[in-house]
TrEMBL record:
Residues 1-119 form the Gfo/Idh/MocA-like oxidoreductase N-terminal domain. The keyword Transcription regulation does not apply. PANTHER family: OXIDOREDUCTASES (PTHR22604), TRANS-1,2-DIHYDROBENZENE-1,2-DIOL DEHYDROGENASE (PTHR22604:SF105). Residues 129-244 form the GFO/IDH/MocA-like oxidoreductase domain. Belongs to the Gfo/Idh/MocA family. It holds the Pfam family GFO_IDH_MocA. Keywords: Oxidoreductase. This is Gfo/Idh/MocA family oxidoreductase.
Protein backbone atom coordinates (compact mmCIF):
# COMPACT_ATOMS: atom_id res chain seq x y z
CA UNK A 1 0.00 0.00 0.00
CA UNK A 2 1.48 3.33 -1.09
CA UNK A 3 1.44 5.79 1.83
CA UNK A 4 2.21 9.50 1.97
CA UNK A 5 3.12 11.35 5.16
CA UNK A 6 1.57 14.73 5.87
CA UNK A 7 4.23 16.60 7.84
CA UNK A 8 7.67 15.99 9.30
CA UNK A 9 6.79 15.80 12.99
CA UNK A 10 9.28 14.33 15.43
CA UNK A 11 7.17 11.23 16.09
CA UNK A 12 6.97 10.60 12.35
CA UNK A 13 10.73 10.85 11.84
CA UNK A 14 11.64 8.94 14.99
CA UNK A 15 9.14 6.08 15.00
CA UNK A 16 6.63 5.88 12.17
CA UNK A 17 8.72 6.61 9.07
CA UNK A 18 11.40 4.01 9.95
CA UNK A 19 8.65 1.47 10.66
CA UNK A 20 6.90 2.23 7.37
CA UNK A 21 10.18 1.92 5.49
CA UNK A 22 10.75 -1.52 7.02
CA UNK A 23 7.17 -2.80 6.71
CA UNK A 24 6.68 -5.45 3.99
CA UNK A 25 3.10 -4.33 3.23
CA UNK A 26 3.79 -0.60 2.93
CA UNK A 27 5.57 1.46 0.31
CA UNK A 28 6.57 4.86 1.68
CA UNK A 29 5.79 6.97 -1.36
CA UNK A 30 6.19 10.59 -0.29
CA UNK A 31 6.54 13.00 2.58
CA UNK A 32 4.98 16.46 2.45
CA UNK A 33 5.84 19.67 4.23
CA UNK A 34 5.08 23.34 3.76
CA UNK A 35 8.86 23.81 4.06
CA UNK A 36 10.56 22.59 0.87
CA UNK A 37 13.93 22.10 2.56
CA UNK A 38 12.41 20.06 5.39
CA UNK A 39 10.46 17.90 2.92
CA UNK A 40 13.62 17.32 0.87
CA UNK A 41 15.76 16.39 3.88
CA UNK A 42 13.17 14.03 5.37
CA UNK A 43 12.50 12.42 1.98
CA UNK A 44 16.24 11.93 1.42
CA UNK A 45 16.61 10.29 4.81
CA UNK A 46 13.81 7.80 4.10
CA UNK A 47 14.32 7.38 0.36
CA UNK A 48 10.97 8.70 -0.81
CA UNK A 49 9.65 11.65 -2.80
CA UNK A 50 9.46 15.15 -1.27
CA UNK A 51 6.23 17.09 -1.76
CA UNK A 52 5.77 20.78 -1.00
CA UNK A 53 2.35 21.42 0.54
CA UNK A 54 -0.23 19.03 1.93
CA UNK A 55 -2.69 19.77 -0.87
CA UNK A 56 -0.20 18.46 -3.44
CA UNK A 57 0.13 15.20 -1.54
CA UNK A 58 -3.64 14.73 -1.43
CA UNK A 59 -3.86 15.42 -5.17
CA UNK A 60 -1.48 12.53 -5.92
CA UNK A 61 -3.62 9.65 -7.20
CA UNK A 62 -0.77 7.16 -6.75
CA UNK A 63 -0.92 7.63 -2.96
CA UNK A 64 -3.59 5.41 -1.46
CA UNK A 65 -3.32 6.39 2.19
CA UNK A 66 -1.87 9.17 4.31
CA UNK A 67 -0.43 9.35 7.80
CA UNK A 68 -1.20 12.60 9.65
CA UNK A 69 1.24 13.47 12.47
CA UNK A 70 0.31 17.15 12.59
CA UNK A 71 -0.45 18.97 15.89
CA UNK A 72 -3.76 17.86 17.41
CA UNK A 73 -5.66 21.06 16.55
CA UNK A 74 -4.81 20.60 12.86
CA UNK A 75 -6.01 17.02 12.60
CA UNK A 76 -9.67 17.73 11.86
CA UNK A 77 -9.29 19.96 8.77
CA UNK A 78 -6.55 17.87 7.18
CA UNK A 79 -8.13 14.53 7.98
CA UNK A 80 -11.35 15.86 6.46
CA UNK A 81 -9.44 16.98 3.36
CA UNK A 82 -7.76 13.58 3.06
CA UNK A 83 -11.08 11.76 3.33
CA UNK A 84 -12.56 14.07 0.68
CA UNK A 85 -9.65 13.11 -1.57
CA UNK A 86 -10.54 9.44 -1.14
CA UNK A 87 -7.51 8.57 0.99
CA UNK A 88 -7.38 6.12 3.85
CA UNK A 89 -6.07 7.91 6.94
CA UNK A 90 -3.94 6.98 9.92
CA UNK A 91 -4.02 10.04 12.21
CA UNK A 92 -2.09 10.72 15.37
CA UNK A 93 -3.91 10.78 18.68
CA UNK A 94 -6.12 12.38 19.67
CA UNK A 95 -8.01 12.20 16.40
CA UNK A 96 -9.53 15.61 17.25
CA UNK A 97 -9.97 17.74 20.35
CA UNK A 98 -13.78 17.73 20.01
CA UNK A 99 -15.94 14.57 20.36
CA UNK A 100 -18.55 15.92 17.93
CA UNK A 101 -15.87 16.52 15.31
CA UNK A 102 -14.45 13.05 15.90
CA UNK A 103 -17.88 11.55 15.22
CA UNK A 104 -18.30 13.64 12.07
CA UNK A 105 -14.98 12.44 10.64
CA UNK A 106 -15.67 8.80 11.44
CA UNK A 107 -19.10 9.12 9.82
CA UNK A 108 -17.52 10.73 6.76
CA UNK A 109 -15.01 7.90 6.46
CA UNK A 110 -17.78 5.31 6.57
CA UNK A 111 -19.84 7.22 4.03
CA UNK A 112 -16.88 7.42 1.63
CA UNK A 113 -15.89 3.78 2.24
CA UNK A 114 -12.39 4.67 3.40
CA UNK A 115 -10.62 3.78 6.64
CA UNK A 116 -9.93 6.34 9.35
CA UNK A 117 -7.81 4.98 12.20
CA UNK A 118 -6.46 6.78 15.25
CA UNK A 119 -2.80 5.97 15.91
CA UNK A 120 -2.94 4.61 19.47
CA UNK A 121 -0.10 2.12 19.24
CA UNK A 122 0.18 0.58 22.68
CA UNK A 123 -3.12 -1.31 22.37
CA UNK A 124 -1.48 -3.35 19.58
CA UNK A 125 1.29 -4.66 21.86
CA UNK A 126 0.88 -8.33 22.76
CA UNK A 127 1.53 -7.79 26.48
CA UNK A 128 -1.89 -6.18 26.99
CA UNK A 129 -3.70 -9.13 25.42
CA UNK A 130 -1.86 -11.34 27.92
CA UNK A 131 -2.97 -9.08 30.77
CA UNK A 132 -6.59 -9.22 29.58
CA UNK A 133 -6.40 -13.02 29.41
CA UNK A 134 -4.98 -13.29 32.93
CA UNK A 135 -7.76 -11.07 34.30
CA UNK A 136 -10.42 -13.06 32.42
CA UNK A 137 -8.99 -16.31 33.83
CA UNK A 138 -9.41 -14.99 37.37
CA UNK A 139 -5.72 -14.57 38.12
CA UNK A 140 -6.45 -11.62 40.46
CA UNK A 141 -10.02 -12.48 41.36
CA UNK A 142 -12.79 -10.02 40.63
CA UNK A 143 -11.48 -6.80 39.08
CA UNK A 144 -11.77 -3.78 41.37
CA UNK A 145 -9.67 -0.94 39.93
CA UNK A 146 -7.15 0.30 37.41
CA UNK A 147 -4.33 2.71 38.25
CA UNK A 148 -2.50 4.11 35.20
CA UNK A 149 0.23 6.74 34.99
CA UNK A 150 2.11 8.31 32.11
CA UNK A 151 4.48 11.19 32.83
CA UNK A 152 7.44 12.58 30.91
CA UNK A 153 10.27 15.04 31.66
CA UNK A 154 9.96 18.74 30.85
CA UNK A 155 9.85 19.70 27.19
CA UNK A 156 11.74 22.57 25.53
CA UNK A 157 10.03 25.93 25.92
CA UNK A 158 9.31 26.17 22.18
CA UNK A 159 7.74 22.70 21.93
CA UNK A 160 4.35 22.76 20.18
CA UNK A 161 2.82 20.93 23.14
CA UNK A 162 3.04 24.19 25.07
CA UNK A 163 0.79 25.95 22.55
CA UNK A 164 -2.96 25.80 23.28
CA UNK A 165 -3.85 26.97 19.76
CA UNK A 166 -2.24 23.77 18.43
CA UNK A 167 -4.04 21.49 20.88
CA UNK A 168 -1.18 21.31 23.35
CA UNK A 169 -1.26 20.32 27.00
CA UNK A 170 -0.65 17.24 29.09
CA UNK A 171 -4.15 15.81 28.74
CA UNK A 172 -4.06 15.59 24.96
CA UNK A 173 -0.40 14.58 24.81
CA UNK A 174 0.24 12.09 27.64
CA UNK A 175 -3.16 11.87 29.31
CA UNK A 176 -4.51 10.05 26.27
CA UNK A 177 -2.54 6.94 27.28
CA UNK A 178 -4.03 6.25 30.73
CA UNK A 179 -7.47 7.28 29.43
CA UNK A 180 -7.20 4.77 26.60
CA UNK A 181 -5.94 2.12 29.04
CA UNK A 182 -9.16 2.58 31.01
CA UNK A 183 -11.22 2.23 27.83
CA UNK A 184 -9.21 -0.82 26.79
CA UNK A 185 -9.45 -2.78 30.04
CA UNK A 186 -12.71 -1.57 31.61
CA UNK A 187 -15.21 -2.46 28.94
CA UNK A 188 -18.54 -0.70 29.05
CA UNK A 189 -19.62 2.87 29.66
CA UNK A 190 -17.20 4.94 31.76
CA UNK A 191 -18.08 8.21 33.44
CA UNK A 192 -15.81 10.92 34.81
CA UNK A 193 -16.36 11.34 38.56
CA UNK A 194 -13.66 13.96 39.13
CA UNK A 195 -10.62 15.56 37.54
CA UNK A 196 -7.96 18.22 37.99
CA UNK A 197 -5.74 19.89 35.41
CA UNK A 198 -2.74 21.80 36.73
CA UNK A 199 -0.89 24.69 35.07
CA UNK A 200 2.75 25.41 35.83
CA UNK A 201 3.23 29.18 36.27
CA UNK A 202 4.12 30.74 32.95
CA UNK A 203 2.61 27.96 30.86
CA UNK A 204 -0.52 28.47 28.77
CA UNK A 205 -1.52 24.81 28.81
CA UNK A 206 -2.16 22.19 31.47
CA UNK A 207 1.10 20.50 32.44
CA UNK A 208 -0.32 17.79 34.72
CA UNK A 209 -3.58 16.22 35.68
CA UNK A 210 -5.48 13.39 37.30
CA UNK A 211 -8.89 11.85 36.82
CA UNK A 212 -11.20 9.40 38.51
CA UNK A 213 -13.43 7.30 36.26
CA UNK A 214 -16.12 4.81 37.19
CA UNK A 215 -17.60 1.97 35.18
CA UNK A 216 -21.22 0.91 35.54
CA UNK A 217 -20.15 -2.23 37.42
CA UNK A 218 -18.38 -0.11 40.04
CA UNK A 219 -14.80 -0.68 38.86
CA UNK A 220 -12.80 2.55 39.12
CA UNK A 221 -9.90 3.98 37.13
CA UNK A 222 -7.39 6.31 38.77
CA UNK A 223 -5.40 8.15 36.12
CA UNK A 224 -2.39 10.47 36.41
CA UNK A 225 -0.39 12.26 33.73
CA UNK A 226 2.07 15.11 33.33
CA UNK A 227 4.85 16.53 31.19
CA UNK A 228 7.19 18.07 33.75
CA UNK A 229 7.86 14.90 35.75
CA UNK A 230 10.14 11.94 36.16
CA UNK A 231 9.34 9.37 33.48
CA UNK A 232 6.64 6.85 34.35
CA UNK A 233 4.74 4.55 31.99
CA UNK A 234 2.82 1.95 33.94
CA UNK A 235 -0.49 0.56 35.07
CA UNK A 236 -1.79 -1.90 37.59
CA UNK A 237 -5.03 -3.81 37.71
CA UNK A 238 -6.20 -4.64 41.24
CA UNK A 239 -8.64 -7.41 42.03
CA UNK A 240 -10.24 -9.12 44.99
CA UNK A 241 -7.30 -11.51 45.43
CA UNK A 242 -4.30 -9.91 43.75
CA UNK A 243 -2.98 -7.40 41.28
CA UNK A 244 -1.14 -7.24 37.97
CA UNK A 245 1.55 -4.62 37.35
CA UNK A 246 2.95 -3.61 33.96
CA UNK A 247 5.89 -1.21 33.66
CA UNK A 248 7.05 0.46 30.42
CA UNK A 249 3.46 -0.10 29.40
CA UNK A 250 2.78 2.56 26.79
CA UNK A 251 5.90 3.15 24.68
CA UNK A 252 8.18 0.11 25.00
CA UNK A 253 10.95 -0.25 22.39
CA UNK A 254 10.57 -3.12 19.95
CA UNK A 255 13.47 -4.99 21.58
CA UNK A 256 12.16 -4.64 25.13
CA UNK A 257 11.20 -7.98 26.73
CA UNK A 258 8.10 -7.23 28.84
CA UNK A 259 7.77 -8.65 32.33
CA UNK A 260 4.33 -8.72 33.93
CA UNK A 261 4.30 -8.89 37.74
CA UNK A 262 1.49 -10.76 39.47
CA UNK A 263 1.01 -10.26 43.21
CA UNK A 264 -1.26 -12.45 45.30
CA UNK A 265 -1.45 -13.99 48.76
CA UNK A 266 0.96 -16.65 47.52
CA UNK A 267 3.61 -14.01 46.79
CA UNK A 268 4.92 -12.24 43.71
CA UNK A 269 5.75 -13.95 40.48
CA UNK A 270 7.12 -12.64 37.23
CA UNK A 271 5.54 -13.44 33.88
CA UNK A 272 8.15 -12.83 31.14
CA UNK A 273 7.09 -12.24 27.55
CA UNK A 274 9.01 -11.97 24.29
CA UNK A 275 9.64 -8.52 22.77
CA UNK A 276 6.94 -7.15 20.52
CA UNK A 277 6.88 -4.26 18.06
CA UNK A 278 3.75 -2.20 18.65
CA UNK A 279 4.61 0.26 15.86
CA UNK A 280 4.85 -2.48 13.23
CA UNK A 281 1.73 -4.11 14.66
CA UNK A 282 -0.19 -0.85 14.34
CA UNK A 283 0.81 -0.46 10.71
CA UNK A 284 -0.23 -4.06 10.04
CA UNK A 285 -3.60 -3.35 11.68
CA UNK A 286 -4.03 -0.29 9.46
CA UNK A 287 -3.23 -2.22 6.28
CA UNK A 288 -5.58 -5.00 7.39
CA UNK A 289 -8.38 -2.49 8.00
CA UNK A 290 -7.89 -1.06 4.50
CA UNK A 291 -7.95 -4.56 2.98
CA UNK A 292 -11.11 -5.61 4.81
CA UNK A 293 -12.78 -2.22 4.57
CA UNK A 294 -13.58 -2.10 8.28
CA UNK A 295 -12.07 -0.31 11.25
CA UNK A 296 -13.47 -0.37 14.79
CA UNK A 297 -14.17 3.12 16.13
CA UNK A 298 -15.95 2.56 19.45
CA UNK A 299 -12.80 2.95 21.59
CA UNK A 300 -11.78 6.10 19.73
CA UNK A 301 -15.20 7.63 20.43
CA UNK A 302 -15.18 6.56 24.08
CA UNK A 303 -11.76 8.12 24.50
CA UNK A 304 -12.90 11.36 22.88
CA UNK A 305 -15.89 11.59 25.22
CA UNK A 306 -13.72 10.94 28.29
CA UNK A 307 -11.12 13.55 27.32
CA UNK A 308 -13.91 16.11 26.99
CA UNK A 309 -15.44 14.94 30.27
CA UNK A 310 -12.13 15.35 32.08
CA UNK A 311 -11.81 18.93 30.81
CA UNK A 312 -15.34 19.72 31.98
CA UNK A 313 -14.79 18.12 35.38
CA UNK A 314 -11.59 20.15 35.77
CA UNK A 315 -13.51 23.38 35.15
CA UNK A 316 -12.73 23.85 31.46
CA UNK A 317 -15.05 23.79 28.43
CA UNK A 318 -18.20 24.17 30.52
Amino acid sequence: MRVGVMGCAEIARRRILPAMKAHPLIELAAVASRDAAKAAETARQFDCRPVVGYEALLADDTVRAVYVPLPAALHAPWVEAALAAGKHVLAEKPLTTDPARTRELLDTARARAVVLMENVMFVHHAQHATVSRLVAEGEIGELRSLHATFTIPALPDDDIRHQPELGGGSLYDVGVYPVRAAVHFLRGKLEVRGAVLEHTPGRRVDTAGAALLRARDGVTAHLAFGMEHAYQSRYELSGSSGRILVDRAFTPPADHPPRILIESRAGTRSYPLPPDDQVANTLTAFVSAVRTGSCASADCLAQADLLAGIRRAAGLDR
